[in-house]
Design a protein that fits this description.
The structure is a homodimer of 329-residue chains.
Chain A: H1 3-6, H2 10-17, H3 21-28, H4 35-48, H5 54-61, E1 66-71, H6 77-92, E2 96-101, H7 106-118, E3 123-126, E4 141-144, E5 154-157, H8 159-172, E6 178-184, H9 193-205, E7 209-215, H10 221-229, E8 231-232, E9 235-236, E10 240-243, H11 246-258, E11 268-273, E12 287-289, H12 292-304, E13 314-317, E14 320-322
Parallel strand pairs in A: 1-2, 1-3, 3-4, 4-5, 5-13, 6-7, 6-10, 10-11, 11-12
Antiparallel strand pairs in A: 8-9, 12-14
Chain lengths: 329, 329
């Protein structure tokens, strides 16, 4: 690699323009100089195709205008879309995104946080699966979906209300025997509140409900077995199911089709997330939509804000319901 | 923001350890020093929670270990998954990804290339929609899907073979009257070769075919109108359709359902990309699968390789066929 030797430096520009190094520096940094000097420097910059060394600039100003974003992956449409919005929000503010995929690995996450700090990023936005994540006080961090305590701001959908909304919609559509299905990590995180909200509404409204909750790693067949056990004389006991994610709802829909149970005639299904075919087409199913754009904007605003300002420890953003063909309305 | 003032410097470490600055530098950079000195420096680093300033390091070595990756967005599952693989390939080689979303905007792309160069990235991997993109010779750039001439290496799927394979599969499955459907940019790019390969096989095999090609921005209804025009007495004239992407195939499937044409009984459909539900579940349709992981690995190897080595101008990677329910096999 010889490119750095060839790239013109600020010195080369000064020589070409016949001005002092300080004059070039002023022009590059937007500090006023005499019109003639400015023109000479600009012409020299253009002639030599000189690029400002942001790296050196970052070192001086102690700002890199780079934010590290950590997600498990970009394969899940939820993570991909959220990252897309975060990147948009950063770009609008002239910041850049350094991306890290954690693959749900707590150790990997810890390593990336240290790396990001070494890289002197101006902040970290992180969707973490490491409840013991250690972060330096020097680099602001905003967490999505995982609450680390009052010192670290956490941004999430209003998952509790989402659970309530799902139960309300099913009841409103005539369901009288509900089920909740969940596969997920045992760790405390904001999405766990979906169940709590759902249960709360069922109890307030006096609607019977059954919970089928399994841990990450359990084969999906556990859900199909559960459904099969609850089919009596060709009829599913439940007439409404709330699934913790659209992805699980999709699998449940495939199972129900296989079992000969019709949706939404025999049972209505609501998922959670608001996932769409190919990222921007129809919803996969009727769903509680997470406000991804708002989450992204909020995270970016919080990670960039003045550290002396008081930041809330948890911000929950309102969700909404979208019809996607698997309910009666 | 006061954090940079609080962060310990190499000087602080030297003072704490009671050694010379050069000794700290050696330890940090992995250069051997006496065991006792190393221990003292390491203890001081730990005590002060000192982080190596990669920024300063990058400035010195003229390497940042950062590669800029430019994609139109992360909403499309194709771009998201490709970016995920590129990031994985970079991470394995201890590089980081600085991500830019271009939103298909040629001017935005040009600006980002300049920005990335200013950021002193070690290279750029770019899926571009700007045929006139200007890049500096100082920063290696690898292009995905768009050929910019011999000086800039381009990595793509073997789109021509993919078109041939789609036609062959349809013919093998009994189709005798084919159609090709495409919506896309008028710009020359590698995916355009899908049509050429398809046409080539139809002609070699003596199978009649019809092309329906519209430009970006045309309302989708143009395709549904086209299908309707080719329904005679309730029967679609074509018995096989090759769609330029899975996303278009999906829309065609929705139209056919609306028009009462059964898939795969009346007409068989093959898409292109290999898109999967939720990124990793079933294929949306029978499809020609792009080797995204291989594309990512190849791009990363090429962008990092020694610039004095000869690089090929175009690398086409083999595609494969996957059954996804919309064909007879």
């Amino acid at each position: 690699m010889t490119r750095q030797n060839q790239a013109p430096t600020m010195k080369d520009v000064a020589k070409e323009a016949g001005v002092a190094l300080g004059t070039v520096s002023k022009v590059v940094n937007g500090i006023p100089v005499g019109e003639e000097y400015r023109t000479r420097v600009e012409n020299a910059i253009e002639k030599l195709n000189y690029r400002v060394n942001s790296y050196a600039k970052g070192l001086k100003s102690n700002k890199t205008y780079i934010i590290a974003v950590m997600m498990p992956n970009l394969v899940s449409p939820f993570f991909a879309r959220l990252t897309d919005y975060i990147n948009k929000a950063l770009t609008q503010r002239k910041y850049r995104m350094l991306f890290y995929a954690t693959d749900y690995d707590p150790e990997q996450e810890q390593e990336y946080v240290i790396l990001a700090e070494q890289q002197k990023v101006d902040g970290i936005i992180c969707l973490s699966y490491n409840p013991n994540l250690k972060v330096s006080e020097n680099v602001p961090l905003v967490s999505i979906d995982r609450y680390f305590g009052a010192a670290i701001p956490c941004v999430a959908s209003d998952n509790y209300s989402g659970g309530q909304l799902a139960a309300e919609k099913l009841i409103e559509n005539g369901c009288r025997n509900l089920a909740f299905m969940r596969i997920g990590s045992r760790l405390t995180n904001e999405p766990n509140k979906r169940k709590d909200g759902f249960v709360n509404t069922c109890e307030v409204r006096g609607i019977p409900y059954t919970l089928k909750i399994v841990e990450d790693g359990t084969p999906y067949s556990a859900f199909e077995d559960f459904l099969q056990e609850h089919i009596k004389e060709g009829k599913l006991e439940f007439d409404g199911i709330f699934c913790v994610t659209d992805s699980l709802a999709h699998q449940i829909l495939v199972s129900l089709d296989r079992l000969g149970i019709r949706v939404p005639q025999d049972v209505q299904i609501i998922g959670f997330d608001g996932a769409q075919y190919f990222g921007d087409m129809e919803y996969y199913c009727s769903t509680i939509v997470q406000p991804l754009e708002d989450i992204a904007e909020t995270c970016v605003n919080m990670v960039l804000q003045d550290r002396s300002a008081k930041v809330p420890s948890l911000v929950c953003l309102p969700v909404s319901y979208a019809y996607g063909g698997t309910t009666r309305g």
